[in-house]
Structure formats: structure tokens, C-alpha cells
Amino acid sequence: MRLDPVLTLDDLSKSFAGKTAVRVSGLKAPAGETLVLIGASGSGKSTLLRLMAGLLSPDAGTVSLGGTPVTTAAGPELRRRMGYVIQDGGLFPHLTARGNATLGARHAGWDAGRIDSRLQELTRLTKFPADGLDRYPAQISGGQRQRVSLMRALFLDPEILFLDEPLGALDPLIRSDLQRDLREIFRRLNKTVVLVTHDLAEARYFADRIVLLHEGRVVQVGAPRELEEQPAEEFVTTFLRAQRRLHGEEE
């Protein structure tokens, strides 16, 4: 049984230079669900994620988080209800892993004891080596940088977590390990997650539901099996076939 939607999009649209980048209506992310946005380059998936997170302003329509409008002018209280992870981690190079992970909590005025307790909890959860906390981003691996970025995103215990191709820049072995750990974290925390990927295999691995985008519009929303067995239109089949060929899968 699904919980009430935590994130709701109504009649949302965004254009750049007169060209529609995203047009979405009635999309909802229920509490505890992992929703994966997938599509070819230029399909609008990252633009849609930024609209959801309030990093871009829509030309029309609304995004709401638990009934509260999400806008670029959202205050710190709303921002703390959302975590965000980007492809390269987005860590500040002049801060240690510890400094990056605890940045939001320090700005929120948490005391040192509370910060240290939460950091230890997240270090265990993300399997980040404790002896790496005082190293700078340039001194740790790409996979470790993503784990620090995830700790930072989770530190204030947000209701929803946004991830924009978080594993795209990693080599296959590190990517596989982090995929497994991320899925375990999502399931353990039971948070609402919206993840962008261009890889169907990764989408299948994480998703409760997949949102397939093409030229800024939602072509189909459903569980991975639904897209394969009940395609809404020919493009769905074409996209899935292209992905299977890319991964060397049999038709």
C-alpha cells in the first residue's frame, strides 16, 4: 500500500530559447518510493530533476513537497527537507571529507556532539573509511567522494533525496559496488528518492517506477516490467531495444 505522495508536479513546463525542455503533468513520487528518470541525452531528465528540487523556476505549473510549494526562493527550512547529489559529488576542494559532510549541519547550528554522532552513523551507513574523514577530495577516490556527497545529502535527514547521474563518472567495478550500497541504503532508510540515469540496467536495478522521457515529455511511467510488457507507444519499445543492444542483451 502506497503512502500519500510526498512530491507532486502539476502542469509543469520549462522552455529555453523558445524550445520546450520539459512539459509534465500529474507526476507524483509517493513517500518511500525510488523514482528513476531515464531518457536519451537532451530528453529533459536533468532539467526535470532541477525543477523538482527548486534549482530551476518553471515557466508554468507547480512542484510541491508534502503540500509546500518548491521554488528557487524556498527558505532554509524547506531546503533542509531535500538532499541533492550530483555526478562528480560537488565537494568543496578546500574542505576535508568531514568538513564537506557536516557543512549543512554546521550552518544549521548543530552542536559539536550532535554533529559527531550523526557523522559516525553516516560513516557506517555509507561504508566510508573513518580514517579518510580528514582527507581532502583530491586525496580520496571517486567512489569515496560520492559517499561523502551522499553523507552530506543525508546529514539533516531529508524527506527526499535527488541524485543526478551519481555514478556516471565511475569505473565499472566502483560503480557496481556503489550501486549495491546505494540500493541497500535506500531500502534501509525508506526515503523518497528521485534518481536520474541514462542507463536502463541501472534504472531497473533501483526503480520502483521508471519515468521515461523523450523530447521533454513523459512517454510512460511504470514499473520496469510494465515498460517492457505494456509499452505505451512505439518509442518505448525502440528505446528499450536500443538499450539492450548497448548492453549486448538478447532480444
Question: Helix and strand string, N-terminal first?
Answer: EEEEHEEHEHHHHEHEHEEHH
Strand content: 15-25%
CATH class of the domain at 1-81 and 160-174 and 190-251: Alpha Beta
Q: What is the spatial order of strands in the main beta sheet?
A: 7-8-9-4-10-11
Per CATH, the architecture of the domain at 1-81 and 160-174 and 190-251 is 3-Layer(aba) Sandwich
Summarize model confidence as the mean pLDDT: 92
Structural class: alpha/beta
Number of helices: 10
Brief overview:
The chain has helices at 45-52, 76-79, 97-101, 103-107, 112-126, 142-154, 172-189, 200-206, 224-229, 234-246; strands at residues 5-16, 19-24, 27-30, 34-38, 60-65, 68-69, 82-85, 160-164, 192-197, 209-214, 217-222. With 251 residues, it is α/β, with parallel strands linked by helices. A hairpin with a 2-residue loop joins β1 (5-16) and β2 (19-24).
Describe the structure.
The protein has 251 residues and is of the alpha/beta class. It has a domain at 1-81 and 160-174 and 190-251: Rossmann fold. The chain has 10 helices and 11 strands. The chain has helices at residues 45-52, 76-79, 97-101, 103-107, 112-126, 142-154, 172-189, 200-206, 224-229, 234-246; strands at residues 5-16, 19-24, 27-30, 34-38, 60-65, 68-69, 82-85, 160-164, 192-197, 209-214, 217-222. A 6-stranded mixed sheet has the order 7-8-9-4-10-11, with helices on both faces. Strands 1, 2, 3, 5 and 6 form a 5-stranded antiparallel sheet that branches. A hairpin with a 2-residue loop joins strand 1 (5-16) and strand 2. The radius of gyration is 18 Å and the shape is globular. The two termini are 34 Å apart.
